[in-house]
Amino acid sequence: MTGRPGRKPAARAARAAERGSGTVLVLGLVAVVALLGTVLAGLGQAQAVHAGAQGAADLAALAGADALRHGEDPCAVASDVAARNGADLDTCTDEGGGVLRVAVHRDAPGVARLAGSGARATAAARAGPASARGS
């Protein structure tokens, strides 16, 4: 028997069987961290897409309400403004009194879809004169 005195062959064999287990543990941790990073990136990207859709809705509603005030087609103007801001106009409603309500959607890119946040961000906005507040 070679090696240090007092060591049993079974202990040596058990230690040899565990060789490399630290590498497997580290690889597992790296995979978990990479997965969490991907999910968080997707959620952040989904939030950014939603914020962009809300901005497009706000701008489309304001431009449409202004067009309504000037006797132009408010929904055509709102659709154009939404498209310029990367969104598609879903609904456009003249509520009377110079008030316009719009709803838009914006498609989410790949990573946001992987995070389970859906493939589309939707937003709505309402704009009109100050005298129409509260109605």
Q: What keywords describe this structure?
A:
alpha+beta, three-stranded antiparallel β-sheet, 4 helices, 55% helix, 19% strand, rod-shaped
Written overview of the protein:
With 135 residues, the protein is of the alpha+beta class. It has one domain. The protein has four helices and three strands. It has helices at 9-17, 21-69, 74-84, 110-114, and strands at residues 88-96, 99-107, 120-127. β1 (88-96) and β2 form a beta hairpin. α2 (21-69) runs antiparallel to α3. The longest helix has 49 residues, at 21-69. The mean pLDDT is 85.
Task: Give the topology.
Blueprint: H1 9-17, H2 21-69, H3 74-84, E1 88-96, E2 99-107, H4 110-114, E3 120-127
Antiparallel strand pairs: 1-2, 2-3
Helix pairs in contact: 2-3
Task: Provide a brief overview of the structure.
The protein has 135 residues and is an alpha+beta fold. It has helices at residues 9-17, 21-69, 74-84, 110-114; strands at residues 88-96, 99-107, 120-127. The chain contains 4 helices and 3 strands.
